[in-house]
Amino acid sequence: CHPGADLMSEGTRRDRIRAATEMEIRQRARALLVDQGRDAVTLRAIARELGITAPALYRYYDSREDLLRQLGEDVCTDLVDELAEQLRRIEQADFRAKLGTVCRGFRHWALAHPKEFALVFATRADETGEPGEDGGPQRPGDQFASVFLRIIGPLMAEATEVIEREPAPEELQPQLAPNRVALAEAFAHEGIDMPEQAMDDGAVYFLLRWWVRLYGHVALEVFGRFPFTLADSERLYESLLDELAAELGITEQAGAADQ
User: Fold this and answer.
1) How far apart are CA 145 and CA 253, in angstroms?
2) What's the rounded Cα separation, in Å, for the pair 145 and 140?
3) If we measure between CA atoms, which residue out of 115, 107, 142 comes closest to residue 213?
């Protein structure tokens, strides 16, 4: 046997062991997150469960924040996969059904995974994010980007053909312009090629309103913060989706008539 082959085999084996250990660490971290919340996810607690010393974990993760960031990325990937699978079941031409599927899927996932939701969508960027270009934390929208750009990007491109998008108010346009650039860069980073007409101020204004209203509802529901007792919060959410569809001028089968 060639000595080089033995070295390569040994290196491959070490890589597999390292990958398996990293996966086990994140699995234990996620179990702690789900059972006890983000504060319970510490290197010391994970090391104790794995039967190793806490300093040994630093061979895999630079810090607790690094572990939480990776854990958040795992959660984001699972959510994207779940929403993408739901979208594959929708008729290609039914834009409203696609939009509704994403909105409903996000709410159902959040209610079923409140601790993961809190980690990804209700944690300050400086607690789980990597340093930004200026040495400070990344913007809080980074986790939003990692989940929704791959899902919303194609819908935004499709929306240019099927919705009645109102222009952004003039007083907001100067503020939307830099966000439009940032959004385009984020799409590019995710490997999504967006047509220019899908990235105007009106598109950013639409996305901003969509996110604020839906996230606000879901967050209040997940954290039990509705300002009054609500027996049927799902019906309220559905009315919100109806209002959004009406504002966009889409019907149940918007775009289907063109097929």
Assistant:
1) 28
2) 10
3) 107
